[in-house]
Amino acid sequence: MELTEIQKLEQEIFQLTVELNELRKNSSTVEVVNYEFQTEFGSTTLLDLFGEHDKLLAIHNMGQACRYCTLWADGFNGFVPHLESAMSLVLLSKDPPELQRTFANSRSWRFKLASHGGGPYMTEQSVMPEHGNMPGAVVYERVGEKILRKNTCIFGEGDIYCSMWNLLGLAGIAATEWTPQYRYWQRPAEMEDGGENLLD
């Protein structure tokens, strides 16, 4: 049976992804300093965040005020134990640790959390140079006491890092036609319990 244009393009994208990951595997590294962060348990460093692994995936999240960053983190949350079997994982944002924890708990996130507070880390390690607090991810490698920046990616509408875009596309819905929300419950026109003290 002859492949459709869609199937041909899907195969081409798959092959390009294989080639992309081979390039990433062989990409060069740049040494970075041992940045300091704040957590709900006190101060920590980039080196500390590696834990028992020599690779660290740092997710750059703009904080609880960004619905899109929340969407990506919601998607990654299910992969946490799988990812942590291969490398260490941390979600970084400018929000203070207490706010990070409160918001993470409200989303049932299982990430290790750390705050850069909008300081040097975010400006010097941004996934988009000179754009500061951009959503994305950075992979670091530890070699002895050295920290090497390996690969980066930028998160954005329609990217390959959020499966939501592909599932919407499967239904013929463009990324620009849909906006994520923190929750989708809508208050009924009439509350059977009277509606007193109801928080939206």
Task: Give short descriptive properties of this protein.
alpha/beta; 200 residues; two-stranded antiparallel sheet; 32% helix; 7 helices
Question: Quick gist of this model?
Answer:
Helix content is 32%, strand content 22%.
Note the topology.
Elements: H1 5-25, E1 30-32, E2 36-39, E3 42-45, H2 46-49, E4 55-60, H3 67-77, H4 80-84, E5 88-93, H5 97-107, E6 112-115, H6 120-124, E7 136-143, E8 146-154, H7 163-170
Parallel strand pairs: 4-5, 5-6
Antiparallel strand pairs: 1-8, 2-3, 4-7, 7-8
Can you describe what's shown?
The chain is of the alpha/beta class. Helix content is 32%, strand content 22%. It has seven helices and eight strands, in the order H-E-E-E-H-E-H-H-E-H-E-H-E-E-H. The chain has a six-stranded mixed sheet. Strand 2 and strand 3 (42-45) form a beta hairpin. It is flat and about 65 Å long.
Mean pLDDT: 94
Uncertain parts? none
Shape: flat
- Report the major sheet: 6 strands, mixed
